[in-house]
Amino acid sequence: MLGHFLEAKVVILGSQSVGKTSLVIRYVQKTFSPNCPSTIGASFVATKLVVDGYKIRLQIWDTAGQDRFRPMAPMYYRGATAAILVYDITSAKSFSEIDSWIKELRRTTSDDIILQIVGNKCDLDHLREVSTEQANDYGKKQLGPDHTLFEVSAKDDQGVDDMFTHVTRRILDKAQEIERRKRTNPNGTVQLDAEHDKIKTNNRSCCNV
């Protein structure tokens, strides 16, 4: 049986200035800063939540979007359970670059990695360059008919919690699928492959959330 505590690594990827750091800060700290500094390399934060009765600890890795840091990205997304691919709805260029991230992740990571496309800055709808229909159609074409596009606003706190909860629920579903498909180790650890523990579950009797 799957334990009631899970730990998973989530990496945030996307072009510079799409608001990756703002999304993480809004979700974890419930605040927004209009002058959020650019990430250098990557930053890490952990948060806990409860989904469907399971206590889940997310290790969220916020990566730099500048081109000069792109070669470092594999170091940060290696072993990730899920990747959140962020674009700016006011930037068609940032949306087009999602494609290269999907191709790279499919080439270099496990087939079990969860991919989620997110359009940020929906508070700037009057400056929109990427339509909801365009992004939704792309997501379903590339990631399957069940993919759900999220358009969010870190500034106005629109949809951010819902998006992270959705990703976490997909992580939980994946852990249960893996348990059925492969095996559960005697110590309660579910492995996505032989090399990395992508999702860990422990039968802990208590946990502060």
Number of domains: 1
Along the chain, the helix and strand elements come as: EHEEHEHHEHEHE
Give the CATH superfamily.
P-loop containing nucleotide triphosphate hydrolases
For the secondary structure, the number of strands is: 7
The Cα radius of gyration reads: 17 Å
Summarize the biggest pleated sheet. Answer: 7 strands, mixed
pLDDT average, as an integer?
83
What is the number of helices? 6
Which residue ranges are poorly predicted, with pLDDT under 50 across at least 5 consecutive positions?
189-198, 200-209
| The first-level CATH class name | Alpha Beta
- Calculate the terminal CA-CA distance, rounded to whole Å: 22 Å
CATH architecture: 3-Layer(aba) Sandwich
- What structural class do the secondary elements suggest? alpha/beta
Shape: globular
Q: Which percent range describes the beta-strand content?
A: 15-25%
Please estimate the helix content.
25-40%
Which fold does the CATH topology refer to? Rossmann fold
Condensed summary:
By secondary structure, this protein is an alpha/beta fold. It is built from 6 helices and 7 strands. It is globular.
